[in-house]
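Lab notes, practical 5.
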Amino acid sequence: MKRKEVISIIIGTFCMASATNTVFQPFGIVTGGFGGLGIIFDKLWGIPLWMTNVTLNVPLFLLAFRYKTKKFMARTICSDIMLSVFLGVLPRFSFFPKDFYVNLILGAILMGIGLGMVMKERTSTGGTDLMAFLLHVVLPHMSIPMLLGMLDGVIVLFGAFIFGVEKTSYALLVIYGITKITDSVVEGFQVSKLVYVISGHQEQISDQILFRLGRGATKLSSVGAYTGQSSETLMCIVSKKEVPVLKKIVMETDPKAFVIISDTRETIGEGFVDYTQ
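Output from the prediction step:
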């Protein structure tokens, strides 16, 4: 593995273990996964979290070697080892022992950032996502996300019997927060805008976009469904802060132009994210 990948995995698993040891375990918040099972087993039988993580993942790794690439498995084993070490080494305490809600927010942020950094390196820490993949081999008619949701759902439901419905309700909110933060880390925080401009002054508008924003544009052939007339639609990707300038350009050039603006999940290329660097 590259140095950058190793650093990301170390920082990511450290954040995940910190969230588990300082927030989720002390407050009984079961968010699914083997970490959630570890919290349950620790409550019932006093089994350390790191031991549960290692014990449950070892058989999964042995089974997964048959279906996953060696590179992926090497990263996953490395991630799981680092997570288990941090779970065993980091002390259990609460940053804000008297403020339950601040702790939940902090835990969601730490877990979301940590999980996002690990996933961004195209790996995982094993757990229910790897189990879902293996179950998909046996149950191909069910999607992996569906199987993952079912597995985590069972763990969260199990947690409700141990820690109560109230804690489980908070856990569901935390899961939502973790998911949103993880997506932001994996996909990036910069939101780009996809703009379509339908106008009879395409040349003037595209020239102004290039001159004033330094952005390129693409002309798409289109046909009006009502008029049946052929025309061109201008497509352009800009940053969020550039949208007001682009709208001003269009309105100054053609007040009757039809403009569509929407969010883009990810933009790869010059001026945005360049994965070749």
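Observations recorded by the TA: The mean pLDDT is 86. The two ends are 17 Å apart (CA to CA).
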